[in-house]
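Design review, sub-item: ligand-bound model
Attendees: FS, YL, KQ
YL presented the inputs for the biotin complex:
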Amino acid sequence: IKALHSDYQKIQLEIYPQVDSTNTRAKVRAIEGAQHGHVILADEQTRGHGRFGRPFYSPKGEGLYMSLILRPQMHLSQSVYVTMQVAVLICRVLERLTHQAPSIKWVNDIYLGDKKVCGILTEAVTDFETGQVQYMILGIGLNVWNEEFPDELKQIATALTPLKTTRNEICAALLNEVLPISSSFSFDEEILVEYKRRSNVLGKTVEFVKNRAPIEGVAEDIDETGGLIVRLQNGEVETLHSGEVSIRRK
Ligand code: BTN
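KQ shared the predicted structure:
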């Protein structure tokens, strides 16, 4: 992998033909004491997963499956900025490579057109007493070469093909963006503005579940804590901090 940021010429890369999940492998490495910036890559994942334990389709040779071990100086409450900043940085890289404008589906999915091309899974282990982050695993799954998806994903997933870039180059580009800012992810107004500009949710009617009941409203804004502000049909405002929204297609 070439062109790494000069501060990180000595980062450790572990590359596996197959793992259960690079995030799971990274957690083991972190517990063993791996340094900030340690990277786990795999050609295939047998149990690649996203938020809520959902499977992340990870066939051999077709995607970039990568996890970074980070040891940022930050409090758990700031960890939302990691996902937001990384989503923006991934969009910048994909825009340079594809000359298309990727968009972000709140909170952590990157879309090309109306289909998901990339997912981000950040998992943090914190000090119980102080809430300080001890380490964080930043997992990125990007569909690169896939020409076909299983039936259940056909309508919702896409890949970068027929892009003429290698996974190595994409990986280097992503590391070059993420590593320089990864030791302290703090709130950055410019990132929030760009995150909102790239959002494919703002202005749309979205559905989410509250107290087990489906609710509908218009996504109006994203606040400084990453919360999605939704105006409900009765005029009330609800701020969502996690979970999932689906965009209603007319
Ligand atoms: C999501 O879609 O909710 C996030 C998907 C994140 C997938 C990546 S692939 C590399 C790393 N290993 C995993 O098991 N998950 C992340």
